[in-house]
Task: inverse folding
């Protein structure tokens, strides 16, 4: 079992967290989230909806939180709970957040204690959705999620996996540990307004593929996870996000404008177009430095008895260097990534100078490091000489550190 660092043990005041639970089967997983929150020194008040209580009863929430539990506004009226609970919170987290709860929150409905709490809370709010894939992908839900994110709420992407019944797909409640980490990051950032509201950020992700013939390509091992984490966290911080995705087999993040590309030249075209009015551009994609000089329109066949023809390559344009040199505005912030196997920091420093960007995220790669993994560690080098180490952890945490460093550099 993971050791959870206590908020009290680091000397801070016990943060007040409201855990909203809406009516989904994943309500039972919220018990684990509650346990993590209380054990790490948070004062948690659980506010389940009436339908959540069909799945997990009030005695469980009350025993685990150490507080009484009610769902509607008619209990303890003298304490005005429908206003006080939200007003006094440092963080509200709703897990699971059903499609119905997200719709109510997006439209400001207040017909029970949880929805009243969401309207009166002025602290950060985190939603961890759980529902069937069709519900998550429905335009109504997508618009509600986009509305909530625009207003500054953090809506965590649902996980992909087994759903209720025999269905599998996107819509599963993220693991309690992941929701807990998201809550900790939001609490650490405090109650400040989301800091990318009104900003347009462009992120490239994935790995380009350079075709040799209709069936073969030169590619690389980038999964796109880091770029997608950057897109999700930027959207959560209020940005308008364009994600230029090269061959990433990942679902489009909600509330993000995704442009799918395959080759380095297509990626360049899409990134430069989106960058024209961008406040920041983050090149997380692994862009092929070379492409085959010629494309065979028919499949290249082996010729018996003869050695294969060597493959001639030509250079691809360096998109990051081009973006850094020809900025549409002097205050546009440009971020690059460098995956290195040897002399990681020395190569990173040299690459930062060579590319001319403002920040360079340097990480060490190898067979099992970074590519395809959900966690990574890195150092962010800045053109002003500062170096920010990011300890091993989820790619979302690295993404948030990148935005923490981008924000003060924005015009
Ligand atoms: N990049 C780019 N265009 C390219 C190649 C890379 O924009 N044609 C960007 C990547 O998106 C990344 C950064 O440049 O943000 C670093 O990529 P990397 O491949 O490490 O840099 P190279 O210049 O190719 O250096 P190396 O000599 O290590 O290959």
Result:
């Amino acid at each position: 079992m993971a050791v959870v660092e206590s908020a009290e043990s680091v000397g801070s005041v016990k943060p007040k967290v409201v855990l909203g639970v809406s009516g989904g089967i994943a309500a039972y997983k919220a018990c684990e989230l509650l346990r993590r929150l209380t054990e790490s020194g948070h004062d948690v008040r659980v506010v389940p909806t009436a339908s959540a209580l069909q799945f997990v009863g009030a005695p469980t929430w009350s025993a685990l939180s150490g507080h009484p539990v009610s769902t509607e506004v008619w209990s303890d009226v003298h304490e005005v709970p429908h206003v006080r609970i939200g007003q006094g919170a440092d963080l509200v987290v709703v897990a699971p957040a059903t499609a119905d709860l997200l719709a109510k929150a997006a439209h400001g409905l207040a017909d029970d204690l949880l929805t009243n709490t969401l309207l009166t809370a002025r602290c950060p709010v985190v939603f961890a959705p759980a529902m069937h894939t069709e519900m998550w992908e429905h335009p109504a839900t997508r618009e509600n999620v986009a509305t909530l994110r625009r207003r500054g709420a953090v809506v965590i992407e649902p996980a992909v996996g087994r759903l209720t019944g025999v269905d599998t797909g996107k819509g599963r409640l993220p693991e309690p540990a992941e929701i807990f980490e998201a809550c900790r990051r939001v609490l650490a950032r405090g109650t400040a307004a989301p800091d990318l509201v009104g900003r347009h950020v462009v992120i490239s992700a994935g790995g380009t593929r350079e075709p040799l013939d209709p069936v073969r390509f030169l590619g690389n091992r980038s999964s796109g996870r880091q770029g997608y984490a950057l897109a999700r966290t930027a959207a959560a911080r209020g940005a308008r996000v364009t994600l230029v995705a090269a061959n990433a087999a990942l679902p489009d993040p909600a509330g993000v404008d995704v442009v799918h590309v395959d080759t380095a030249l297509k990626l360049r075209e899409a990134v430069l177009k989106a960058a024209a009015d961008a406040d920041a551009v983050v090149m997380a994609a692994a862009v092929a430095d070379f492409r085959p000089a010629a494309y065979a329109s028919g499949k290249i066949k082996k010729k018996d008895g003869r050695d294969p023809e060597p493959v001639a390559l030509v250079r691809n344009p360096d998109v990051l260097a081009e973006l850094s040199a020809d900025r549409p505005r002097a205050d546009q912030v440009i971020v690059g990534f460098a995956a290195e196997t040897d002399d990681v920091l020395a190569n990173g420093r040299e690459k930062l100078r060579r590319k001319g960007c403002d920040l360079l995220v340097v990480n060490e790669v190898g067979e099992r490091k970074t590519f395809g993994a959900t966690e990574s560690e890195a150092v962010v080098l800045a053109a002003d000489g500062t170096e920010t180490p990011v300890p091993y952890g989820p790619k979302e945490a690295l993404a948030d550190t990148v935005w923490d460093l981008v924000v003060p550099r924005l015009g």
